[in-house]
Amino acid sequence: MTLRFLALLRFAPLALLLVSPAAHAQDLFAPNGAGEESSAAPEPTPAPVAPASAARADADEWWRAKPPPLKPRRPPKPLALRFDGAYAPRRLFKLGVTGADLGLALGVQTAQHTAWWATSRLSLGSTENGLSVWSSRTGAEVEAVLDPIRIGIGASFFFMGVDRAARDQTLMSYGVEVRAFGRVDIVRDDDYALFLRAGIDAGAEARGESMFWGPALGLGVELGVRGKRPEAWTASGATTAGSL
Amino acid sequence: MARRVSAGVAATLLVCALFACSSRSTSGGDEHDDNNFRGDVIECEDALERLQRCCPDFDAAPVLCNFFHSKSSGCGAVSTDDVKPALTRDESACIRDTSCDSLVATKVCERAQLARADESHKQTSLSSSDTTQWTPPPSPTTPTTTTTPERPVCP
Questions:
Q1: Smallest CA–CA separation between A138 and chain B, in Å?
Q2: Domain A79-233: which CATH class?
Q3: Which residue of A41, A75, B87, B145 has the fewest CB atoms within a 10 Å radius of its CB?
């Protein structure tokens, strides 16, 4: 019997080796002190079960999480094209010039009462005796929008030419021009506006050091290209035209 | 904001450059001006248009509305070349304001047909104040009977 007990003692170290990790492992998986050893020791503050499991759930289902809400996109600012034509008498030195003034512009309304335009204008005319005079201008305008009336100012660089009477030659000059104008919308629909426009242009021409100036009175049309004017911008809310 | 200011400054400089760059140039006392975008030239051209309308068989080709001015100094002399339009501003204004019938009746058409650009060449010695002036001969298209128009052409 004694011999058999001694034989079993030979395996005691091996048994200890096997039992010890099992005990640690039991501690790990029983954090609330299920094991005999941990029950004897002073217990640490038990961690709540639910948050740990919730964190694991979050970690596992991250792909289900909703993206942060996007800021609502601002509606694009109304963009429009404008064409207009006017009867435009001009004065150059002591000569009167009678002609037409044609305009093309692309504009955006940046605020309820403000619109900006990139403009290109062409004047074609002649003196009373038939001497051809033309000018081409490129510049910008800003309008105060007071539906249905608008008033504005603009500035442009310009080139101008006067054809000689008997020779195939054009006398050229250039300069800067400023203008003031007013506009009344006669018809306004969702995507267009028809308007009456009056203004005065004054150009300082560099080579002859003279003024090339005169009034203009004509009609125009504005076509909406993109966006609509917010209801709050319109006079009655009845017209939310795509045009400016 | 700074970008807008820069753009404004650039635009201002561009405008100044445009106005500064004309056909008139001066260097070392020499002058050169062949800019024809002038009141006298353009009003002369307008008068020619009227004469072509009002005067039977009026040929505007030899009646030049040109301007040129050049002044150069060298070798002890100052040389000046000037060309002025065939019609003065007063004559152009008169032609503009006169009816077609009157232009024919008062022989303005005939006198205007003979008008030529006023060309002159002047050379002045810097040591002595001698001045020689030369006026070019009339062009071959000018009738030989009357080479110099009566002035003024109008009235």
A1: 13
A2: mainly beta
A3: B145
- Structural domain boundaries of chain B? 23-134
A-chain residue closest to B48, CA distance: A165
Compute, in degrees rounded to 10, the torsion defined by CA atoms A232, A236, A238, A244.
-60
Residue with tokens 């200890």: A16
Nearest CA in chain A to B39: A93
Q: Chain B partners of A176 at a C-beta cutoff of 8 Å?
A: 15, 18
Q: How far apart are alpha carbons A230 and B61 in whole angstroms?
A: 63
Rounded to the nearest angstrom, the minimum Cα separation between B92 and chain A is 10
pLDDT at B146 over 80: no
Amino acid identity, position A140: A
Alpha-carbon gap, residue A107 to A139, rounded angstroms: 12
Residues B84-126 have pLDDT tens digits of 998 999 999 999 999 999 999 998 898 888 888 888 888 887 7
Separation between Cα atoms, residue A88 and residue A123, nearest integer Å? 8
CA distance A183 to A244: 13
3-state secondary structure of B152: coil
Exposure string for A67-78, b = 16+ CB within 10 A, e = fewer: eeeeeeeeeebb
The span from the CA of B138 to the CA of B145, in Å, is 12
**Mean per-residue pLDDT over chain B, rounded:** 78
Domain ranges of chain A: 19-71, 79-233
Q: What is the pTM of this model?
A: 0.68
